[in-house]
Write a structure and sequence with these properties.
InterPro entries: Isoprenoid_synthase_dom_sf. Its cofactor is Mg(2+). Keywords: Magnesium, Metal-binding. It comes from Morus notabilis. The chain is an all-alpha fold. It has a single domain, classed as Farnesyl Diphosphate Synthase, CATH 1.10.600. Helices cover 66% and strands 0% of the residues. It is built from six helices and no strands. It is elongated and about 50 Å long.
């Protein structure tokens, strides 16, 4: 999972998450958990898009995600990244001194929408219809 997470190119959503939190006087440590979840989900999507056994044209001439673990693991690892992102968010709400459960739930709902049929999945479906 480590290899595929850090094989994905950087993206601006995680830093924007931290900056937006700081802009509204939020706690940076809580924003880091949300930013980490965002990046994990970006990496999972990127990995699925660049699996070596898909027929879709590759945006780069050389493979970026091949890990050498075989296609079974290359397909399953990104599927494990998404729940790990949710775990990072839930771990953020473990501190009993801070009542963050409502905010964590709202972030999870928005991430689920962004990853689901109204977001990344729909985009992947639309891309797949072209090929």
């Amino acid at each position: 999972m480590h290899h595929m997470t850090f094989s994905a190119p950087p993206n601006s959503a995680p830093p924007l998450c931290v900056v937006a939190c700081e802009l509204v006087c939020g706690d940076r440590s809580q924003a880091i958990a949300a930013a980490s979840a965002l990046y994990l989900m970006h990496a999972a999507s990127f990995t699925h898009e660049h699996l070596p056994f898909t027929d879709r044209p590759k945006p780069k001439p050389k493979p970026t995600v091949h890990s050498g673990y075989g296609p079974d693991f290359e397909l399953l690892i990104p599927d494990a990244m998404v729940p790990f992102g949710y775990y990072e968010l839930l771990a953020m709400s473990d501190d009993p001194a801070q009542d963050t459960s409502g905010r964590v739930l709202r972030v999870m709902v928005e991430l689920t929408r962004a990853m689901g049929s109204q977001g990344i999945i729909d985009g992947e479906y639309q891309d797949g219809k072209m090929y």
